[in-house]
Design brief:
254 residues, alpha/beta, TIM Barrel, eight-stranded parallel barrel, 8 strands, binds pyridoxine-5'-phosphate
Length: 254
């Protein structure tokens, strides 16, 4: 029997990414809407954690938001960042519960792929060590390539987050066959990482239509979801949008 087939799956956490509340705030340059208020609503609606990505260009969350978030919320903060000296210093100053390392390109609209851990394993091992020593749970955002899982093991990361954006895009485009292929590759990588002793998270592009297969996999312990929820909040409110995602996750988890 595989872990997926056991009747009792371990709990699945929902991390709500509030970056795009800050995107909206920054569009006008004022203080509203406040991403900290969104984080508190998310917490009240069933989020197990809050995720925020401080980008080099500060296009959504800005430096002051990190301290404000950490002071306000009672669930863990998952701090997404590029593996740069500037971001490492910020993370070491705040010591969030978790640090998720993501690739970053200034010209991209959003995080387009996973980290190339295989090409950068030595540097990343040294980069992660002080974060781990500071008590941060470090995760690496990767694609479903086996080389990246091996490299994550070499780096000593306790967690990987799989980039599921391509699968979500293919579903949205009605490309059923290609989506099924992508999901099969992701599922296999998720099982491999879990068997190797790494905690598995998934994120990027997840919507009500694409959450079920990841929520159903017992090997997956956390989903990080942002853009879809903030968009859906325009129509039904943030709390109800998150509560519905939580319901779909719990239904799929069985
Ligand atoms: N996980 C990681 C590592 C990310 O970089 C992002 C996007 O910032 C997300 C999850 C959330 O993606 P989305 O906003 O598309 O739900």
């Amino acid at each position: 029997m595989t872990t997926s087939e056991t009747s009792l799956s371990p709990p699945l956490r929902l991390g709500v990414n509030i970056d795009h509340v800050a995107t909206l705030r920054n569009a006008r340059g004022g203080a509203l809407p406040d991403p900290v208020r969104a984080a508190l609503v998310a917490q009240g609606a069933g989020a197990d954690g809050i995720t925020a990505h401080l980008r080099e260009d500060r296009r959504h969350i800005v430096d002051e938001d990190i301290a404000r978030l950490m002071a306000a919320i009672s669930v863990p903060l998952n701090f997404e960042m590029a593996a740069t000296a500037e971001m490492q210093a910020i993370a070491l100053r705040h010591r969030p519960h978790a640090v998720c390392l993501v690739p970053e390109r200034r010209e991209e609209r959003t995080t387009e792929g996973g980290l190339d851990v295989a090409a950068d394993a030595n540097r990343l091992r040294g980069f992660c060590a002080p974060l781990v020593d500071a008590g941060c749970r470090v995760s690496l955002f990767i694609g479903h390539d086996a080389r990246q899982i091996d490299a994550a093991l070499r780096v000593g990361a306790p967690v990987v987050e799989f980039h599921v954006g391509r699968y979500c895009d293919l579903v949205a485009e009605g490309e059923g066959d290609a989506a099924a292929e992508e999901l099969a590759a992701l599922s296999s990588a998720i099982r491999d990482a879990h068997s190797a002793g790494i905690e598995v998270h998934c994120g990027h592009g997840i919507s009500y239509d694409t959450v079920a297969p990841f929520a159903a996999m017992a090997e997956v312990r956390e989903l990080n979801i942002g853009h879809f929820l903030i968009g859906e909040a325009v129509f039904r409110g943030l709390g109800p949008a998150i509560a519905e995602m939580r319901r779909l996750m719990d239904d799929a988890r069985g």
